[in-house]
Amino acid sequence: MPLRILGLDVGEKTIGVAVSDPLGWTAQGVGVIRRDRPKEQITGQLKKLIQDYQVERIVVGLPRNMNGTLGSQGQKVLAFARQLGAELGLPVETWDERLSTVSAEKVLLAADVSRAKRKKIIDKMAAAVILQNYLDSRNKKFQSGEN
């Protein structure tokens, strides 16, 4: 059975979570993990998701400045991604997440989702956007014969 990819949008207060379908074509937002709890609980939630969805790889959105440089938040996310890979024993990649939250917000506005509901689901939608962009890039390379 094909395995899945977990996508994460790591913020200061929350982590948006998305997962790919088993074939690696589409991303679906699955939830949000609050970061105001002990690190062990956060890792435990991620381990459960990895087990439940049979995840083989993790993609973490890397916030870059518009000029491509890494700011302080980008450095924090890189450290989080490295630590996550070491703790979970899975490959962890970063993916440029510039404007992912803006894209998610536009989708929700187009769907006429209320402001209150948007606030509750924006992080998981941003994770889905990050993961979908990663999947699209990977699948495009696969279709063109690149490795």
TrEMBL record:
Keywords: Cytoplasm, Hydrolase, Nuclease, Ribosome biogenesis
InterPro entries from the UniProt entry: RNaseH-like_sf, YqgF, YqgF/RNaseH-like_dom, YqgF/RNaseH-like_dom_sf
Keyword Nuclease: yes
GO cellular component, one term: cytosol
CDD domains: YqgF (cd16964)
Keyword Hydrolase: yes
Subcellular location: Cytoplasm
A molecular function GO annotation: nuclease activity
Record-annotated YqgF/RNase H-like domain positions: 3-104
Enzyme Commission no: 3.1.-.-
SUPFAM superfamilies linked to this entry: Ribonuclease H-like
GO biological process: rRNA 5'-end processing
Family: Belongs to the YqgF HJR family.
Function noted in UniProt: Could be a nuclease involved in processing of the 5'-end of pre-16S rRNA.
Protein name (database record): Putative pre-16S rRNA nuclease
Lineage summary: Bacteria, Bacillati, Bacillota, Clostridia, Eubacteriales
